[in-house]
């Protein structure tokens, strides 16, 4: 079983609105700027769009805001890095750090679980 097959088997795809801020770029600290984006977990990566309509038109390069490669990434809950509730951090292999947040408790827990499962399924392959 390769990573893609495993992802299909456990059905990790997920999409919806989530608040996000990048706090470090390749280890270099950035000033916080929280943005609400239409977030898509597509099995191997996280993608961000301005809204759902843009995602449907994702063949248009301009609509995609950013993409996070989850291979080798880590994910953890954090209470110290924001005054907001329900915040988790993703750190990529390249040293980019992102915070994610939603006031909806269940939404955040579902995202955390789905992304962690994706990272685990990608493993070290
Ligand atoms: C930041 C802004 C962020 C806040 C951050 C502030 O100020 O208020 O929303 O993060 O706190 O510095 P500015 O707009 O002047 O950049 P949280 O909402 O996550 O708390 P921080 O400095 O403690 O990270």
Automatic annotation (TrEMBL):
State its location(s): Cytoplasm; Membrane
At the top level of its lineage, which domain of life is listed? Answer: Eukaryota
Report the gene name: LOC108701317
In its UniProt entry, what is this protein called? Rho GTPase-activating protein 15
Give all residue intervals belonging to the PH domain.
Answer: 11-120
Organism classification: Eukaryota, Metazoa, Chordata, Craniata, Vertebrata
Protein's organism = Xenopus laevis (African clawed frog)
């Amino acid at each position: 079983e390769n990573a893609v097959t495993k992802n299909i088997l456990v059905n990790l795809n997920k999409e919806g609105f989530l608040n996000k801020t990048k706090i470090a770029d390749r280890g270099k600290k950035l000033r916080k700027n929280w943005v609400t984006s239409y977030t898509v977990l597509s099995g191997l990566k996280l993608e961000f769009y301005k809204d759902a309509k843009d995602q449907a038109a994702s063949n248009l390069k301009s609509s995609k805001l950013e993409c996070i490669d989850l291979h080798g990434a880590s994910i953890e809950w954090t209470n110290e890095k924001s005054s907001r509730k329900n915040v988790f951090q993703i750190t990529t292999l390249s040293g980019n750090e992102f915070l994610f947040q939603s006031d909806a408790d269940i939404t955040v827990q579902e995202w955390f679980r789905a992304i962690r499962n994706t990272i685990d399924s990608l493993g070290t392959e």
